[in-house]
Amino acid sequence: MEFLSGRMQRRLRGAPFYLVLTLATVITLVPIIWVFASALKSNKEIRENALALPGEWRFQNYVDAWFGASFDQYFFNSIFITVTSVAIVLFLSSLAAYAFAKMRFRGNQMIFFIFLIGMAFPLSAKLGPLLSLMYELKLANSRIGLILVYVAGSLPFAILMLRAFFQGFPQELEDSAALDGCSRFQFYLRILLPLSKPSLMALGIFVFMGTWNEFFQALLLINEDSKRTLPLGLTAFQDEYFTDFALSFAGINITAVPVIIVYIMFQRNLIEGITVGSLK
Amino acid sequence: MAHALSGPRKRSSGPRSKLDLMPYLFILPAVVIYVVFNLGPVLASFFLSFFRWDLLAPTTEFIGFKHYDFILNDDKFWNALSHNFIFLLLAVIIPVSMGLFLAVFIYEIRRGRVFFRAALFLPAIFSGVVIAYVWKWIYHPFAGVLNPTLELIGLGAFTQSWLGNPKIALYSTFIAYTWASFGYSMVIFLAGLQDISTDIFDAARVDGANFWQKLFWITIPCLYDVFTFVITLRIFTAMGVFGVIYILTGGGPFYSSDVIDIYVFRMIGNFEMGWATAAATVNTIVVVCISTGFIKWREWRSWSS
Q1: Could you give the ipTM of this predicted complex?
Q2: Is the pTM of this model over 0.95?
Q3: Which of A60, A77, A102 is where one domain is finished?
């Protein structure tokens, strides 16, 4: 290898890594590409050769899926529930995290610990009484009810993450703001939140994904078609159109595409939201 | 608000000052929602597992461990829990090691890091519902892609009903789970790798360490805490797997891929709230024991070595 230039050597050294990574990427992406391709085929084409590419691109499948089922309604429900949940989680968790990180009060440690406990329980630990409670409060089968459940589920992680972030803020900042006659709520609103934009962004995208994708609790609490979110609507749609292959594939894609778009736009924020927990 | 405006100064005015209510106002909304819609139902689930109750007629009568007596003698409960354990064992081995190797490979290359990370993480962004339907179609007996591909590459003998065969249905669902979860481990490992000082790797290269030596003597020991976090995450997702299995097999055929969350969900659906809460409580104890036991063991090991 002596006769090769240093640059060539480095390239050759990296070759096996590229080979494995490329292979892994192909295997990972093929199912997604295949589902997208199949959504453009006719049922006859799918039955005759599941592996072939579409002969002509039938975008009609998407139109049929969108109008044949209530995907517009599911889509609206998902947007409404997810955006509202994320906004409430960001507001409430930043308020609480500020208190936990920067204020002295009796029970600070204790109450924070009670929030942390919430992350240790499996989801099934609360389902029976939750369903009962939601019926009692007339919040079953309601978008508002689902939002409250999602917010309650996201708060522990959100408070843990923001508390750690706020603890890094220098005390002098708050002291000088107080000297200028700035109340703690004003400090929170005018100084703390604007300075925390990157963290709030990462947390927001992370909560957005989790809420948009949630299925178990939605399945338990919602059984009216007009209140269904996209994942829930997709299951109803698949049950109905199970023999209509092309339409089923189109339905999967309609559910997947919004997440892919958000992922492409906010990839960095999302991965930051995931990894920040690991570095704690 | 007058109190709020003088808040920061009041705080330092000694122990005799009035109780500062401001912090409690800051945490109050979060506490209320969290207690009512999350922690409260968890505690209620625990207490109600000792009572006879159902959703429609709220008569409660203390019956002690009767529900537990039923659950712990129900073969289907142990069947479901054992499948969670199989899932757990596989989940801490396969997606975690895939994630580690892919993270190390991405770390080793120069160009295309962002692309490979983004592409390999892609399946992890989907809802369990989307993941399940993608794989339901892959496994589909004749419209699917797996059986025709196996025939195409001369492995026609392996074609079969991936979700209909009780011997392999659970493992078929595990493959779908793996497809969507190795990327999660990968990005966390990658973030951990980027935190390790490059000096260590440079020194190892100067000393002539090869890939495997670097992996076992530097990378893995340096990622000790990251491993703990990644595996803890797998414990929670494997013990709480629901959507993927619910859609792919519904726990079948013949309960061969049943897991605890589907078992509990089925109980709730049958209005057997007592059994559902008892099963959920046993499961919670198991999950908390495994996860805290694992974390304590890791802390003890890093402290004692």
Answers
A1: 0.88
A2: no
A3: A60
